[in-house]
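User: Could you go from structure to sequence for me? I need the amino acid at each position, not a summary. Structure tokens:
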């Protein structure tokens, strides 16, 4: 009987050790999955933070870009306005002086005064 009770006792101890090992394994896997969950959560939080930072920097970039491009468009508008003013000024001068210049050209061409050129030498 003692051998039977020793065998039962050993069997109970083996079951207890197996149960302890199972609980320990569950704890390890539980903490491992807990670590995995924490890592996953930390990764997600980091991604959210990165996205927020990226949006903030993108917003700042677009603001600076709009300031620069806005000033460039204002500059091009100003240059366009100056160009149109110059064209109008030149057209005004053309219309004002066209008649007198045409008359002067026609008189130079049509009114010929026969003269002997200064460099002409009479060979006699």
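Assistant: Here is the amino acid at each position, in order:
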């Amino acid at each position: 009987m003692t051998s039977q009770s020793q065998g039962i006792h050993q069997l109970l101890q083996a079951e207890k050790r197996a149960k302890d090992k199972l609980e320990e394994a569950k704890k390890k896997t539980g903490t491992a999955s807990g670590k995995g969950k924490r890592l996953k959560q930390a990764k997600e939080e980091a991604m959210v933070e990165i996205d927020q930072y990226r949006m903030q920097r993108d917003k700042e970039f677009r603001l600076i870009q709009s300031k620069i491009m806005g000033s460039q468009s204002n500059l091009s508008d100003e240059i366009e306005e100056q160009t149109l003013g110059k064209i109008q000024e030149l057209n005004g001068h053309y219309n004002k002086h066209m008649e007198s210049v045409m008359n002067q050209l026609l008189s130079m061409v049509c009114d010929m005064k026969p003269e002997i050129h200064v460099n002409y030498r009479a060979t006699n």
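One structural detail worth keeping in mind: The chain has a mean pLDDT of 85.
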